[in-house]
């Protein structure tokens, strides 16, 4: 970013060199205030010493990160062992978010294709219908989900009623409930980018492939999927990243045993744990993880374009 | 069913309906093996619908389609040994030119080595070997068109369908491609079914032409037949230029019909079937079959010159007949020695040989 500004200023022939600095200022200011400063504060706090019941003491400390990765016994005097508790919570979060993303993809991709193949006048109506549930507050939707899924809720009653099951399914307080909750929370973020990609897709390419002896599934795999891949990648990132840090669905649907990172971090600032540096450190680790995933997928994408 | 095995494509009473709309009214035609066959007609005449039915992209509401005697109208497109060159080329953007051309062969299950070899040969045929590694987006429109052609030819289909493949090219390139397509058809021996709305293109390239209009087959024949013996006013008007004059038949005798124009002038011409005394029909006269002269000939009409328009190879003379009808005559520029050009306002005779005028009953 700095490189861009420097090259703009150093160019002698550039009449707008002076103006450009001013015109870019709002963008720089926004980035500074909304991205650099918060992340910076978080980074600093993660290296401070904790104060009981929230707050920090301004004294440098590795302790938050140490606590995350190592177990030194109750009094801190034993030789360090790897602390699995938090790594396990992270792993569970990645797993839950991953399953939710795959669920969204499985439902979202056909949905997007369905909408994109309607008559052009009907498409906005379908898109509108997809977004309607999301006008309701996320908390209310998640609570409603719990009512739907509980042992004597409508889902179980209906399944019992038509005789598919003889005993109610225990879904609430399981991983599945969390996955369903996350899937439902972020489904439109999967549908919309894929829809945008499929809508731009030239369907005569599918005809051409069929004409050249490709059966249906081969057309999908070899022609349609590569063409709409950017939309699929965008959709997956948009569902995976917020799912990873989510705390509403795991809290309400998953119960105490299905803790995820979002809840862990929330606890550090709101709950009784009240350990700000530890919360900040966990957030930094999560941020790093997300960045690595994004960079990896961006590089994959770039490599594909270049080929 | 008298299945003839010699015809490449045999279409029997094919009907296509979309809800209440009938796109194709019971079309029957046979396309011979090794033929350059053209479906010609204005947009919306059903020619593309018919082509898509042969390819398998549209199902057949009624009727049957045979490919070398085998009924194919129920087969999905990927099971028909027919390939298509699409109007917008429909090249796969994420594949290289060579991968595009090899796709059909790959799908047919040929080993990759053979796929590459034969795709390379197909590219050679359209003189694009040096672009094998490029992506379609890096080629010009004309080059993309040739890749689309190579891709459709590479699997050696029994029949090749071409859906207005030249319409996006500029005039010069189009003319060159017309000749090249004709050569490729002759060299490969594959049956070509070519769709176009450009009658000149159809006349230039085709062994036989099917003229279509409003979902019906109007006439089937070679270029000469269609041009010189149009069956109805639509064909006469659509193929080339013509003067259509409403006439009333006065007498039919010995294969000749005497008729008169609204202005009272009389003319005799060959009587086609179904022409009877008193019939009100149309007379078709091609602009180049008439000579403007100061003296009347065997068959003549009187007229007054309105204007002369210089159009390069030709001079178009617009005249008014005695009854007020407009009439156009085309004189080749190289005929200037023989034919005189008259000033506007001059009274002239339009002379024609016997058989130049043609009576059309509908």
TrEMBL record, chain A:
Q: Which domain of life is it from?
A: Bacteria
- Keywords for this entry? Cell membrane, Membrane, Transmembrane, Transmembrane helix, Transport
Biological process according to GO:
transmembrane transport
- Where can this protein be found? Cell membrane
PROSITE patterns this protein is in? ABC_TM1
The ABC transmembrane type-1 domain, residue ranges: 90-297
A GO cellular-component term linked to this record: plasma membrane
Q: How does it sit in the membrane?
A: Multi-pass membrane protein
Family classification: Belongs to the binding-protein-dependent transport system permease family. CysTW subfamily.
Q: What is this protein called?
A: ABC transporter permease
Q: Which organism is it from?
A: Marinibacterium profundimaris
UniProtKB/TrEMBL annotation, chain B:
Q: What class of enzyme is it?
A: translocase
Give yes or no: UniProt keyword Transport.
yes
Its domain of life reads Bacteria
The Gene Ontology terms for molecular function here are: ABC-type putrescine transporter activity; ATP binding; ATP hydrolysis activity
Under PROSITE patterns, the record lists:
ABC_TRANSPORTER_1, ABC_TRANSPORTER_2
Segments forming a coiled coil: none
Pfam families from the entry? ABC_tran, TOBE_2
- What does the record give as the reaction this protein catalyses? ATP + H2O + polyamine-[polyamine-binding protein]Side 1 = ADP + phosphate + polyamineSide 2 + [polyamine-binding protein]Side 1
Which keywords does the record carry? ATP-binding, Cell membrane, Membrane, Nucleotide-binding, Translocase, Transport
For the keyword ATP-binding, the answer is yes
Cellular component GO terms held in the UniProt record: ATP-binding cassette (ABC) transporter complex
EC id: 7.6.2.11
Q: Which residue intervals define the domain ABC transporter in the entry?
A: 9-239
Q: What does this protein do?
A: Part of the ABC transporter complex PotABCD involved in spermidine/putrescine import. Responsible for energy coupling to the transport system.
User: What's this protein's family per the entry?
Assistant: Belongs to the ABC transporter superfamily. Spermidine/putrescine importer (TC 3.A.1.11.1) family.
- Assembly with partners or alone: The complex is composed of two ATP-binding proteins (PotA), two transmembrane proteins (PotB and PotC) and a solute-binding protein (PotD).
| Protein name, entry field | Spermidine/putrescine import ATP-binding protein PotA
């Amino acid at each position: 970013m700095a490189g861009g500004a420097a090259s703009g200023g150093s160019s002698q022939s550039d009449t707008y060199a002076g103006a450009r600095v001013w015109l870019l200022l709002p963008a720089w200011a926004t980035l500074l205030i909304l991205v650099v400063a918060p992340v910076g504060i978080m980074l600093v706090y993660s290296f401070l010493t904790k104060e009981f019941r929230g707050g920090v003491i301004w004294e440098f400390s590795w302790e938050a990160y140490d606590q995350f990765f190592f177990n030194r016994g109750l009094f801190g005097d034993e030789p360090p062992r790897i602390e699995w508790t938090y790594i396990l919570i992270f792993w569970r979060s990645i797993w839950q978010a991953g399953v939710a993303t795959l669920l969204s993809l499985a439902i979202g991709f056909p949905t997007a294709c369905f909408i994109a193949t309607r008559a052009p006048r009907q498409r906005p109506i379908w898109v509108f219908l997809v977004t309607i549930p999301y006008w309701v507050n996320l908390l209310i939707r998640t609570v409603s989900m719990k009512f739907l899924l509980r042992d004597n809720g409508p889902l179980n009653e209906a399944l019992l009623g038509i005789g598919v099951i003889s005993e109610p399914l225990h879904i609430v307080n399981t991983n599945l409930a969390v996955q369903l909750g996350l899937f439902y929370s972020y489904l439109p973020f999967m549908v919309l980018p894929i829809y945008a990609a499929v809508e731009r897709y030239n369907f005569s390419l599918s005809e051409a492939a069929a004409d050249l002896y490709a059966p249906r599934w081969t057309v999908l795999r070899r022609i349609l999927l590569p063409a709409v891949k950017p939309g699929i990648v965008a959709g997956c990132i948009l569902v995976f990243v917020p799912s990873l840090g989510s705390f509403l669905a795991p809290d309400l649907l998953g119960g105490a045993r299905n803790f995820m990172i979002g809840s862990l971090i929330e606890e550090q600032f709101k709950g009784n744990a009240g350990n700000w540096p530890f919360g900040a450190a966990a957030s930094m680790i999560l941020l790093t993880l997300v960045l690595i995933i994004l960079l990896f997928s961006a590089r994959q994408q770039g490599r594909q374009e270049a080929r | 069913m008298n299945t003839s095995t010699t015809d490449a494509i045999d279409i029997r009473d094919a009907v296509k309906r979309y809800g209440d709309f009938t796109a194709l009214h019971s079309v029957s035609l046979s396309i011979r093996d090794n033929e350059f066959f053209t479906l010609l007609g204005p947009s919306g005449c059903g020619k593309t619908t018919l082509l898509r039915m042969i390819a398998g992209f549209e199902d057949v509401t009624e009727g049957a389609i045979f490919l070398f005697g085998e009924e194919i109208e129920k087969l999905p497109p990927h099971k028909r040994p027919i390939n298509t060159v699409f109007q917008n080329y429909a090249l796969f953007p994420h594949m290289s030119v060579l991968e595009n051309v090899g796709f059909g062969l790959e799908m047919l299950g040929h080993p990759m080595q053979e796929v590459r070899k034969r795709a390379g040969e197909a590219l050679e045929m359209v003189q694009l070997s040096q672009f094998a590694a490029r992506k379609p987006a890096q080629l010009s429109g004309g080059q993309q068109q040739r890749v689309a052609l190579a891709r459709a030819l590479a699997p050696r289909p029994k029949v090749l369908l071409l859906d207005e493949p030249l319409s996006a090219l500029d005039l010069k390139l189009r003319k060159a491609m017309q000749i090249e397509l004709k050569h490729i058809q002759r060299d490969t021996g594959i049956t070509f079914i070519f769709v176009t709305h450009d009658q000149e293109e159809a006349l230039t390239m085709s062994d036989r032409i099917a003229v279509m209009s409003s979902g019906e087959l109007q006439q089937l024949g070679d270029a000469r037949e269609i041009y010189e013996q149009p069956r109805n006013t639509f064909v006469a008007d659509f193929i080339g230029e013509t003067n259509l004059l409403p006439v009333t038949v006065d007498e039919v005798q010995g294969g000749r019909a005497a008729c008169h124009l609204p202005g009272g002038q009389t003319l005799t011409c060959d009587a086609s079937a179904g022409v009877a005394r008193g019939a009100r029909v149309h007379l078709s006269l091609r602009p180049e079959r008439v000579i403007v002269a100061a003296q009347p000939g065997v068959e003549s009409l009187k007229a007054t010159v309105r204007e002369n328009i210089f159009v390069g190879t030709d001079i178009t003379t617009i005249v008014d007949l005695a009854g007020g009808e407009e009439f156009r005559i085309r004189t080749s520029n190289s005929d200037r020695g023989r034919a005189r050009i008259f000033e506007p306002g001059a009274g002239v005779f339009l002379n024609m040989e016997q058989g130049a005028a043609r009576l059309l009953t509908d």
